[in-house]
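Much of what follows relies on a compact textual record of a protein's fold. A record is reproduced here so that you can trace the correspondence yourselves:

. . .
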Amino acid sequence: MTLALRYAAHTDIGLGPKKRNEDSGYAGPYLLAIADGMGGAVGGDVASAITITTVRELDSPGHTDAEQVLGGAAVEANARIAARIETDPHLEGMGTTLTAILFDGANAHVAHIGDSRAYLLRDGRLRMLTKDHTFVQTLVDEGRITPEEAEYHPHRSLIIRVLEGRQDARPDFHHFELEPGDRMLVCSDGLDNAGVKDPLIAEILSRTPTPDDAAATLIEAALDHGSPDNVTCVVADIVDAGPDGPPLLGVGAGTLVGSAALVDPEVTSGGSSITQSHPTTSHDIVDSPADPASVQGATGSDGLPPEPDMEEELRYAPRPPRRFKWLFRVVGLIVILGLLGVGARWAYDWTQRQYYVGAYPGDSGDASQPRRVAIFRGIAQQIPGIRVSQLYELEPLTLAKLPSYHRERVASTITANDLSEARTIVAMLSDVARRCAPAPTPTPKPTGTTPSGSPTTATPGTTRPPTIPATRSPLPPQRQLVPSTRAAATPPAIPLECGGTEPDTPNPTGTK
């Protein structure tokens, strides 16, 4: 079975204070789309027209990946909005919703961002195909308020996702299979804001014979309810396009309505086909501006900007035009550089409160000078281009007097928590050097006695005094070591190891 669309589109400026229609709509053989512009006096009509004229380029068969092309069109529209703001800064703050349905002959692919809506009527039952990207909808999703309370919430029109040229705002996507007899509706939020709720929408879609009648009746219902906002409806019927199906009336070129029709003169809105429905003209101000400048958000006839619609200003978070962008960027850069400078200064000051014990001169110093133990202020790590350590105290102790293990530890630096601990480490190293120093070799003294067995001859004429045997003074008694009852002082954490191997002791510094 081959399916086809029979479609129509209608729009109206509404009964509120707005002087121009900020909605744009499109209906074609393969595409239905609504863009509801926002921004009050700063050009919501421009944003919606840019978006619809971009998306309508998809109205052709043969798309192999419908979601990809819809997403690409949304991104392109967002980029065009950003480019327009760059060239016309007073349009800063404008944005638009987008709800589009791409038809591939059997399925409908929906792309949605904002609070416009898409519906499907099948067998008399109405189903909403989209979810509003609004603040109150997030409250409903979180269970903080009920759907009934959302209808009267003071911020029910606050949108949180739109195309506004600021970021890559990709829409939501989903698809569903179509059947003959289905009827689809894409509409702006003006329909719901007017009080035309789902039961009345279902009743109108069920009883009207053609898409043109359905769209026109929905617009009339919104006006009857005193619609304060622009309202746009695009309706399409799914029909059998096979040889046995009904004749396909109203299948031809697509049509634009609203702001997009005014800024795109290539698309006409006249003719006998229902695909080319006129915007509703039940009152004088409907799409009345003939000057394209009025559609592009320029000044009014008195040379002053039109008075902003307060309801529209509250529709999404108001953002004043970003003027002096370069100044904000320069100030931001200066602030960032200032924070980096403060952080770097703090880090440097921290390094100058650290101490360590090492060898001086270092490995690259003068080899003719003996390397000595020294206290350094800073950290031992090297940072290219920044000097983070300097000699603080040079000790008389040379590395040559230390055992090999301690000599290596000093050469690789020993970290201390503060200056006092660094000096304690030096004192312990000096103690190790003193205790590990080699003992001096004793030199024997002459006794003055003759060797035994040698005769002694008295010198003639001299009288030899009598020999008095030498007596050895008694040695003092050996003192016994009695264990002291007092607590012994804590020994240095640097171990006494005079050999060349690493001792089985904790870290010589004793630091944590």
Remarks:
- The mean pLDDT is 78.
